[in-house]
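Long-time lurker. I teach an intro course on protein structure, and each term I like to show students one example going from raw sequence to a predicted 3D structure in token notation. This year I'd like something fresh instead of my usual example. Would anyone be willing to generate the tokens for the chain below so I can use it in lecture? Attribution to the forum is fine with me.
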Amino acid sequence: MTSRQEGASPREVPPAEPAVPEEPAPDESVQEAPRPPAPKPVPETAVGDGAGPPEPAAVQPGGPPRAVGLHGLRFALGTLTVLPVRVERWDRRTARSGMAWAPLAGLSAGLAAAAGGALLLAPGGSPLLAAVFTVAVPAVLTRGLHLDGLADVADGLGSGKPPHAALDVMKRSDIGPFGVVTLLFVVLGQIAAVNGLYAHGGWTHGAAAVTVAAVTARTALTLAARTGVAAARPEGLGAAVAGTVPVRTAAGVAGTVLALSVLLGGATGWAGWAPAPWAGVPAGVHGGQLPALWGALRCLAAGAAGLLAAELLLRHCRRRLGGVTGDVFGALAETAATAALLVSVLL
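-- Reply from a regular --
Happy to contribute to a lecture. Here you go:
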């Protein structure tokens, strides 16, 4: 009997042994290790490189200054004009360089507008028709975005609502009464000014004033992107470029533009720019030292007036909206261009 009991006990031991091999549970935890490969969002850095979000700046902070300048030039032309320029980088450093190049985008628009006026004046077209075409060219080259921004800012500021509500008004796709009236008066004012410039001094007179106005308009954008000017929204073009340009750089760009405007006005005056009748220049005097001096002062005054008008609007927008947006940049450009043209035709 004892031998059977001793024999039975060994048979009961085997069932206990299967519990020991049940260590596959740790094996399953080991097999879960392959899950770490899931964090393969590393390719996002390559995708976002030129897609638009500002985060790629952390991936591409460096690069030779010449390369950054080239990317900045592409940024300025691709963002501020309709020219077929591909923007390859969209980060804060490129935005800073791009906004410093903004006056060059204005120069291309101004020269194209002046050429458009010449196409209609040369065969004997009326100054008014040439003025309409001249004003239309920059609008086409900017996809009408600056004019659209002007209308949106007029609606937002005219609503009298708090900053967040005013920004919501500006974000709507429709244009309200304030926007329509502002857009109408600004466009008509620009056409009337260019018409007077062509009628009084001919194409040379108008072309110089239009070019100065276009460059001044984009210089106002450079000044609006200076450090210390915050964005009103965390997204959009305003957030991408706000506060990117150092104050000294912005001031240097503005000073250079005004100096070049003086040279352009002096050259066109010497070549035959006729001053306004009340300027004190003897009748029939076209070209020479006196008209050259007057032309230089006229372009200087036009550029300074445009920048001053844009700065006043910028301060008002910062106070009412809390900062700048893409619409504010468009409104600043149109305000600066209109003020420069009005001063040019009055002087």
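Some talking points for your students: Residues 51 and 303 are 35 Å apart (CA to CA). Residues 93-346 form one domain.
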